[in-house]
Amino acid sequence: MDDVLDENKKLAAENKKVSDREKILEMRVKRLETDNKELLKKIDNDQSEIDILKVRVAELEEEKARRDEQNKYFEMKNKELEAAKAFREHEFYMLNKVVESMLGTSVEQRFEEIQVEELRAKCQAEIDEQMKDMGKGTEGSVTVEERSIVPSLVIETPDVEEEGDDEDDDDEDDEEDDDDEKVFSASSHGSDNDDDDAQGGMGIKVTEVSKERTVDDFMNDSVNEESGGAEGKGESGDA
Predict the structure, then answer these.
(1) Helix (H, G, I), strand (E, B), or coil: what is residue 185?
(2) Residue 195, exposed/middle/buried by CB under 10 A (0-12, 13-18, 19+)?
(3) Global model pTM greater than 0.70
(4) Which of 160, 165, 171, 159 has its CA nearest to residue 237?
(5) Phi, psi (5° rounding) for residue 175?
(6) Contact, 220 vs 177, CB < 8 A?
(7) Could you give the residue ranges of the DSSP H alpha helices within 139-164?
(8) How many DSSP H helices and E strands does the chain contain?
(9) Which of 132, 220, 136 is nearest to 173 (CA)?
């Protein structure tokens, strides 16, 4: 009887161990199932990403094919442009040779000469404009300069100091007046040319002619007065 009880106790202990082991295995199975579900979800997510990447790869392949076609087109276009550039350079070379043979000098040298001519013409135009402005400013001062000639010519006129024959004195005075008039006319015409060249012919010559006549009249009056004084002295000497 005791042996049977001991045997039952042993069986009960073994059953308990088996049941505990079953519980542990069940828990492990549940955990594995949970892990499996998570792995399945992850596989699904990865598969979705794989599908997306496949689509992207297909798009990139299409883009690559299109870029390859564009590269081929651009390569052909580049070759055409290079050929056109070489043709243009050859045309320019021939044209340059023809122009140099016609000019007798290089194009660069002729271009520099044209630049120098244009600069010279520009400077000349500026100088002419300045001279024109100066001519307008100096037009009024010509009259004053002409008036200043009168006393100098009167001072240079020699006085009649000799006493003697009235006819000889008159002849000498007439000759001196003629010489003075020739000198004054030459100087007046020289100043006319200078003023006309500098001022561009502003009508000053007419004014100087009238001034010349006024100076001649003034000189003749002065000579007559001096001649009259000399005659008076001669008559008083004869008396």
Answers:
(1) helix
(2) buried
(3) no
(4) 165
(5) -65, -40
(6) yes
(7) 141-147, 149-156
(8) 6, 0
(9) 220
- In whole angstroms, give the CA distance from residue 34 to residue 27: 11
Distance between CA 229 and CA 215 in Å, rounded?
Answer: 21
What does the block give as tokens for 80? 């055409």
Q: For tokens 């043979």, name the residue.
A: 101
Tell me how far apart the alpha carbons of residues 183 and 144 are, in angstroms, rounded to a whole number.
Answer: 20
92 residue type, one letter: F
- According to DSSP H, which parts of 104-165 are helical? 107-138, 141-147, 149-156
Which residues 6+ apart lie within 8 Å of 143 measured at CB?
A: 207, 211
pLDDT tens by residue, 51-87 = 999 999 999 999 999 999 999 999 999 999 999 999 9
The first and second tokens of residue 189, run together, are 């015409």
| Token pair of 20 as six digits | 């505990």
